[in-house]
Predict the structure of 7-methyl-GTP pyrophosphatase.
Amino acid sequence: MLPDSTHKLILASSSKYRKELLSRLGFPFTAISPDIDETPFPDEKPQETASRLAYLKAKAIGMQYPGSIVIGSDQVAECQGEQIGKPGTFEKALAQLQKMRGREVNFHTALCVWNGMDADPDKTAQKEIVKTVVTFRDLPDEELKAYLNIEEPYDCAGSAKNEALGIAILEKIESSDPTALTGLPLIALTTMLRQCGLSFFSGAAK
């Protein structure tokens, strides 16, 4: 059920991390998981995959709920030119962390805002990619396994759950938006939502 609001805001995601981030902005919203194929295309660059999937997520939900503002986001990690997605299992997560330890990894977080109040929302869809460069610590397998057993970050791209104990396996984070690595770049998003007519401080005292 959509919220009773002047602007019906929908997050096209089932991610608990993105829900928590969007809730910081104070708008009522509904989270709906889009049903799309997230398989990368052959020879597709990581940032291209992230951008395409963010757009497809927003469009899929936007077509189902006309008149709504829909937020789509996707993240793809890249290590030495190789795409690194969500591991899904302990074994795959450990292999990811072993590959990334001691190295710089690029996290491409794509954002798309679909404004269903526009006459042609497909044409006016706003898109942006925020790149975060993460340096992983060169840790032994024992520490990596312990981290995985504690956090179970199997739904996180690159197994990097930085908002919790995962911060201890990282040496450095470089980004223009501190929320991008968690999965939803709020600085870029607030700019896009302003373009859609949403006001963040309309109820604030003068």
Summary: The chain has one domain: 9-195. Residues 9-195 form a domain with the Maf protein fold (CATH 3.90.950.10).
